[in-house]
Amino acid sequence: MTYLPLTRAKLTAAALLCATLIGLSACGPSESNFPGQPTGKGPNNPTGEERESIFGEDGLTLFGGAAEEDSTGGSGIGVNSFLWRASLDTISFMPLASADPFGGVIITDWYQDPKAQGERFKVTVYILDKRLRADGVKVAVFRQERSGPGGEWVDAQVGGATSLQIENAILVRARQLRINTIEATEQK
Question: Taking the complete model, does pTM exceed 0.70, yes or no?
Fold first, then answer.
């Protein structure tokens, strides 16, 4: 005759003992150097060679990071912060569809000027550099017109100078922001 509660107690004690032994075996010596410096070796880097980070040489800086800001206008985003802010300021009248500060891409939604019914525009701004340079920004403008009695939107030609004018407006605003920042730091 078996006594059931005693068997359950023995099983529970055995399970607890096994769990304790397994837990304690994990506390034994290991080849890990925690909390020391990482070796760099791992499943994605078996050789341990140093690789370049996707965030660049200085890494990712959020909310200001270091006390001093470098002269290129970097502030933790992947592109020049002056070009980024100037781009947002310049196309602020258009609704934003997406903005990626790490990739440097700003995409607007379609915008229809109330004065020019029957046509709408969409703009994509690419910021290509971390430095404030004239070739550091590229703008693509898309235009559509309403056609026929159905009112369908059809792609239309955009004037060749339109993209260049927006790029120049962004560069002028970026220079203004840079000058304002320099003047503000000199006054401190």
Answer: no
